[in-house]
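Memo to structure team: turn this sequence into structure tokens by end of day. - J.P.
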Amino acid sequence: QVQLVESGGGLVQPGGSLRLSCVASGTTFGPNHMAWYRQAPGNQRELVARITPGGMTNYTDSVKGRFTISRDNDHKTLYLQMNSLTPEDTAIYYCKLDLTNWGLPYHYWGQGTQVTVSS
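Reply from structure team:
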């Protein structure tokens, strides 16, 4: 059973930083595409950043230059370094793992971690 557990969220002042972590279990990690999403109250869940097995990354425009996604395959951990946070970054952040099994795509989500940016 694939499990993803996020941590690192919390309350931070505008301009501050947080680092989110997502630890995977129950599957190989290296070959899988990973991503961070977020969902603010009243909004749809949106893609924040994603990373390929080879380490290529891309970001939604609103976080470019402020957030960095990375992965540690040896420890099956996905990270999101968030700098220069603004109140608009307040949301529940989820990690997502995509894998293919017998030619079929599967998507797994963590339970989410709350990030609140407020003074």
